[in-house]
Amino acid sequence: MLGRTGKVLQIAATYIGTVVGAGFATGQEIIQFFTRFGYWGTAMIAVATVMFVWLGMKMMLLSSEIKAKSYEDLNKVLFGERYGRWISHFMLFILLGVTAVMLAGAGTIFYENWNISYQSGLLITMVGCFFLLRKGMKAILAVNAVIVPLMLLFTFLVMTNTFHMPESDRFLTLPTDQPFWSALAAPFLYTAFNLSMSQAVLVPLGAEVNDRKAIIIGSWVGGAGIGFLLLAGHIALSAHMPGVTQYEIPMGGIAKQLGYGVQLVYTFLIFAEIFTTLIADIYGLALQLQQRTGGSRSLITFSILMICYLASQIGFGPLLSTLYPVFGFISMGWLYLMIRKRMARRV
């Protein structure tokens, strides 16, 4: 039982750590997808949580059953040999773009918060990624086992502090001028993008875990954890609306009110969440390319890092604003096919 409990916690922590990236940790994603829709945002978070639990679990269960070596194996089972290969081609470019965005975000954290040059921040992050990923999935599990509990604890502290404010219930009453249909689409857009990105690490994770019950429970715990983080962030941000929207890092603006020490810890957590997403994406890409080429994983990992380093010279902001809308559009198509195929298979 102890062994199963450990697997459950590792699955849950890896799931949360893979989804909770830079945009989530800063609060920007929560505002854009949920908080700007006022009291509707709370209900939409519930919808997103259900989808994270359901589809994350199904993804890992199928991966375990077919012993998928990479996300391409899963896509072929879901969509057929021909279309699965094309979807995997799209995923390859999407993951490269996301990885470049994450790397650029890490360099920005070093420059804006720790007085270390952008280029040095990129190189430090790349070296850390390369040596950690030589240990494979064990490194991803170990990093998330440390970072995710800290993120949950910090978010809980921010939420409890919000409950002492006179407008702590604004997440239930906050008005909005956004159309209802936009609010209704938000959880589907949000889960589509994050789940399509998460398959790079959740597919090999599901394949390695030879315990169906652990996958099911781990998915419930992980999906619920993502929902808690979304709701806690939404509660805190709603209480500070609309003033908090002036910050590039909204949750950082809230953290400032809790003291310098809390702000310092939060900055580290933002970097850590970027780092966990970065190593997860690179791991998935390396598995995919190794399966295609049969080359050395270390060499492939190094090559991916160099490509992302060159792309990161464009900068965090321009990469984010240019690539993410395209990724969102492609991910919605992926989500539609995923739901349709899985429901038909009744897996």
Automatic annotation (TrEMBL):
This protein's record includes keyword Oxidoreductase: no
Record carries keyword Transmembrane helix: yes
Domain of life: Bacteria
Residues annotated as transmembrane: 37-57, 90-110, 116-133, 140-160, 180-202, 214-237, 264-287, 299-316, 322-339
Keyword vocabulary terms for this entry: Membrane, Transmembrane, Transmembrane helix
Name this polypeptide is given: Membrane protein YkvI
Organism annotation: Paenibacillus protaetiae
